Amino acid sequence: MSLDQARTIIHKALESGRALQLKPLSVVVLDAGGHVQAFEREDSAAPGRFAIAHGKAYGAVMLGMAGTAQMARAEAQAYFMAAVNGVYGGQVVPVPGGVLVRDSAGAVIGAVGVTGDTSDNDAIAAMAGIEAAGLQGEI
Amino acid sequence: MSLDQARTIIHKALESGRALQLKPLSVVVLDAGGHVQAFEREDSAAPGRFAIAHGKAYGAVMLGMAGTAQMARAEAQAYFMAAVNGVYGGQVVPVPGGVLVRDSAGAVIGAVGVTGDTSDNDAIAAMAGIEAAGLQGEI
Amino acid sequence: MSLDQARTIIHKALESGRALQLKPLSVVVLDAGGHVQAFEREDSAAPGRFAIAHGKAYGAVMLGMAGTAQMARAEAQAYFMAAVNGVYGGQVVPVPGGVLVRDSAGAVIGAVGVTGDTSDNDAIAAMAGIEAAGLQGEI
Amino acid sequence: MSLDQARTIIHKALESGRALQLKPLSVVVLDAGGHVQAFEREDSAAPGRFAIAHGKAYGAVMLGMAGTAQMARAEAQAYFMAAVNGVYGGQVVPVPGGVLVRDSAGAVIGAVGVTGDTSDNDAIAAMAGIEAAGLQGEI
């Protein structure tokens, strides 16, 4: 994941949020090792949004499992996702809006975390950014 | 648990995973004190798998209770396993794939943690490794 | 601190780093509450640079003291800055490159953290960004 | 960093330790994101050696700075390396034996951490493993 790709993802995700009249969004892009590449928080978003965006994307990279699958697992086995959070220092937010990013061969090259509107709308904005960068997303 | 035994366990668990066409696996071997003896993560496994494998095995050693029994306890009394995680620093992942290892006299000499496929398949791969090393496993 | 201002600060700080042939930089902008507004990490920078950039800027906002003054305090009273880090959860990196941002009336409206080259060069890049945004910096 | 490369590094580092009659060694290999790929601890090594080996390698990856350079920085500015440890959750051990691994183009693809003998001998064993794998090490 290059910085240019990360910028494209963030700018297009935010543009998508404005076009869809979503609430102010915050968008983080993590690399294949779960490390922060870029982040932007729109004006009027709540101050603590970095940690939520990060938590959505971080769990996706570390587990190789996107937010929708994480939520399903949390619904079925809450204690398992609680334990997962224990081993990852409480940094995992298991809901949609954490989107895996794959290259053309299907390898995970990072994740995008979006927060601010409903979890489903957050995921839509993330996908808009990922597709604008010519990459594949898994919500 | 010697390093030779740990290597055998890991290599045979991974071989078993390949033979059964499981997803890429990660395997940790802990000694009788719950300390890491050896670990391997297969190519294409998600980056954060060490912590999950470790959590499965660590709880097994610390509690003297294998993953299946831990999961039963978590299903019946989620708050108890949450409290256990509190006292062990959030390092316990209470699901199958955390397998106790016993010597011929039945004494616990360590534990194996496998993650990557379903919890049940993870436990099958762990048992294949433990048996190949001439030891007894409790899933 | 608006997102537009934060973008200007980051882009101009990175441009300055390229013009001065510094090593790959990472730049974070925090708001007046010490919360992340925006961040970018250049390609080839080490993966863990977010935490260092954040630590430089976070201490500046929380203490109302820029990196140079923090370093002087750490040199004179290492135990004091260690204690400060205790109360702030270990999130403070007390060296230059953590730059306070003030508005035209002198009020602190955030901080910029830059890491990647020497601490002094990091501070120079931060100042280039802050000045390009029409704001005042204190290194 | 593939598992095959990691195995070669570990086995050759341990062989080197035996040839040089070093104390029992523990060797970890981390990938480019600082995540554990493989680890082995020799028989008779102290139980807590995983964390030391990991700490040597983790700091190297996260900072893009090998153990020797970390130690120099810690000697010159102890409070800086203490602060770095704060932002990385206390996981950094800034001494030789944490060796950066680079590919033929010079890009960091991971790190090796060795512990058990003197820090300098640990680094020699790490280099023996890295060179046997056809990679470049920076001590």
Automatic annotation (TrEMBL), chains A, B, C, D:
Cited Gene3D superfamilies: Haem-degrading domain
A Pfam family annotated for this UniProt entry: HbpS-like
Protein's name in the database: GlcG protein
Source species of the chain: Leisingera methylohalidivorans DSM 14336
